[in-house]
Structures are given as structure tokens and as C-alpha cells.
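Weekly puzzle thread! Below is a chain. First person to post its structure in C-alpha cell form gets bragging rights.
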Amino acid sequence: MSEEALPPDHVSRIDSRLAEDPTRKLVMTRRFDASPERVFDAWTRSDLVAKWLFTGPTSETHNVDFAPRVDAKWTIQDRRGGVDYTAQGWFLEVDRPRRLVFTFGMPQFADEYDRIIVELAPDGAGTLMTFTQEGVRATYKDGAEHGWNLMFMGLKQLIETGAIIYPAHFGKPDV
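Winning reply:
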């Protein structure tokens, strides 16, 4: 885990962007046939995170530095098509098995970070997940939603079956 400190204005910059434009928010819900603890573990255990978060069937290499504790930095690097992609941020809140909050950015695309809020609630024998990305640019919102949809497909399979089997058309729009 990187020991790089949480920048002092990191969260306030996200809050300022939201105050200027409250529509810079993406909210998605998913239901899983698993306990909140199992879903939370898939979001927080690096061995499980490595299987579904910011990776897919075209990944050539995938490195995960992801150990949730407040103010700790996280980094995931994924190589696809010979190109390295880095996702990173800092953990802001870890409340097992109900809530995980962290910042998220991809420095190769923008210098802004968004806030990710994952809220889990029991729903019968399963779990309802409410996922919120705060601060997302309007120009990135559709792409972000598409990317999260693909990752959540993998997350659902991993949680419910223990494995991820990607369809042949994975990642291709309108197939």
C-alpha cells in the first residue's frame, strides 16, 4: 500500500465541483444474491478486487495495491493493448459491511478525482448495492456508466458463482 498522504484539498475539490454542478453524479443500483458481508468483501479484499475492478478479458497484466483503511492510497494498474491504465485514489470511509467511500481518478485522462460511495443494505436473502460516483464530468458520464456496468456484471458473477466468465462480446457496445 502506498504511504502517500491524502492531499489536504482532495475532498474539498470534489465538494466544490458538486456545489457548482449537482448533476455531476452517477447513481446505479444492483441486487446480489449474497450477504452484505460477501459483497463488501468483493469490494475490499485485494484478491477479489483483482478479479473484477478495472480489469477484463483483454487485460494483459493487472496489479492491485488495495487495502482499505481510512486515508490510505490505493492503486490499480491494468495493461490492455500494450497500454497501461492506472486508477487510484484514497479511502475516506470503511464501515463493514454497510459502506465504503473512496476517491477515484485516472491521471492519464484527467487531474480530477471523483468520490465513489458504495452502500450495501440487506434485501431479503440478498443485498441491494447503491453505487454513487460524485464529481463525474458530463462528458465522461456515459462512458463511466458503461464501464461500471461491465465491471458490475463481473462482480455479480464473482459474488454469486465464485468465477467470472466474460461473454465473447464483452465491452463492445450494442451487442
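Puzzle host: Confirmed. Bonus trivia for everyone else. Residues 24-161 form a domain with the Alpha-D-Glucose-1,6-Bisphosphate; Chain A, domain 4 fold (CATH 3.30.530.20).
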